[in-house]
Amino acid sequence: MIDGREIDLNLMTQSIIEKLCKRHLGIGADGLIILTKSDVADFKMLFYNANGFPGSMCGNGGRCLASFANEIGVANQVCAFEALDGMHFASMLIDKTIRLKLNNVSGIQQYPDGLFLDTGSPHFVVFRLHIDDIDVVQEGKKIRNESRFSEGTNVNFVELCENGIKVRTYERGVENETLSCGTGVTASAIASYYSGLKKETKIKVNTRGGNLEVEFDKPVGENFSNLFLSGPVVKVYEGEVEV
């Protein structure tokens, strides 16, 4: 994440962003987020995938940016920010958990092998057993490029658990498995409820990157509203890089 309020954003070209995100040769990241000024909110979120191209909404990235904005004094414990898919609201709870409000979801498409929905980013959700044994990169890449998804899709493999669900995600733009995908976790929780596999409207989610929670109002048909994604945010490090 970069505080971009006082920098020339023209410097952040596709090739520079890709280089910064490249592991071993750059900083190494699944994506780049730039915090910029906003006329209608506390700040604006610009998100780029690891390939250097603009990405759609990043749920965990939005939660991290809210924490970052609070740390640098741009926002209080409750904030509003602009993103590609519209306005979002986040709050920092007493235990430092960041709770992010996502946009309403509707228009769920059901296929024989899974469900497709947009939670700020497009996601295909597949229910499987023993997802720890799945080759997520190989299987995810195949589905991600299928012709039925005109702009490609992220792919989530979901396993039902007694106290929630477990999720592994292949992300487009990163073209790899990521340890935790916020919009993917949200899509997986919605799909679990929509399919009748989960009855509760507050669902605990386990990912390789940590534990999250998704909550929503009881839906009317396939319209899901008051969507919230909650979980911890941990600062890893800070530094400077010469571009």
Identify the notable features of this structure and list them briefly:
single chain; 243 residues; alpha+beta; Diaminopimelate Epimerase, Chain A, domain 1; 2 domains; 4 helices; 15 strands
If you had to describe this structure to a student in words, what would you say it looks like?
There is one protein chain. With 243 residues, the protein is α+β, with helices and mostly antiparallel strands. The protein folds into 2 domains: 2-102, Diaminopimelate Epimerase, Chain A, domain 1; 109-230, Diaminopimelate Epimerase, Chain A, domain 1, CATH 3.10.310. It contains 4 helices and 15 strands. It has helices at residues 14-21, 59-71, 136-144, 182-194, and strands at 2-3, 31-36, 43-49, 78-83, 86-92, 98-102, 109-111, 114-118, 122-127, 154-161, 164-171, 176-178, 202-207, 210-215, 227-231. The chain has a 15-stranded mixed sheet that branches. It is globular and about 50 Å long.
Q: Using DSSP, what is the number of strands? A: 15
The separation of the N and C termini measures: 14 Å
CATH superfamily of the largest domain: Diaminopimelate Epimerase, Chain A, domain 1
| CATH class categorisation of the largest domain | Alpha Beta
**Oligomeric status:** single chain
In N-to-C order, the SSE pattern is: EHEEHEEEEEEHEEEHEEE
Please state roughly what percent of the residues sit in beta strands, choosing from under 5%, 5-15%, 15-25%, 25-35%, 35-45% or over 45%.
Answer: 25-35%
Q: Specify the number of helices.
A: 4
Helix/strand/pairing class, anyone? Answer: alpha+beta
Major sheet details: 15 strands, mixed
Looking at the structure, the CATH topology of the largest domain is Diaminopimelate Epimerase, Chain A, domain 1
Any idea what the shape is?
A: globular
Sequence stretches where pLDDT stays below 50 over 5 or more residues? none
Assign the CATH architecture of the largest domain. Roll
Overall pLDDT, averaged? Answer: 95
- What is the C-alpha radius of gyration, as a whole number of Å? 17 Å
Helix content: 10-25%
The structural domain count equals 2
